[in-house]
Amino acid sequence: RVADLGGALALDNVKLNDWNQVVIIARGNTLIHIMNGKLMSVSVDEDPARLTEGLIALQTEGNGQAAFKDLWLKRLP
Questions:
Q1: N or C: less crowded end of the chain, CB within 10 Å?
Q2: Beta pairing class for 30-35 and 38-44
Q3: Structure confidence by residue, pLDDT tens digits, 16-30
Q4: pTM here?
Q5: Distance CA 40, CA 33 (A)
């Protein structure tokens, strides 16, 4: 299930040709995405075959290029 929190208006929060701050909270099968301080999406992955721990991946979009800086990982209690 996916809840659309901001729709197209949420995209106004994205900085083009600049750095965006993204916080992803993954607890079990619940994912929370926050961009530049604004809640963008909350989703629940109900696929029982999906891994719930141990895998982190960074994905490229569009032209296949992406840049990442200042990556931080924090284990939640």
A1: C
A2: antiparallel
A3: 888 999 999 988 888
A4: 0.71
A5: 6
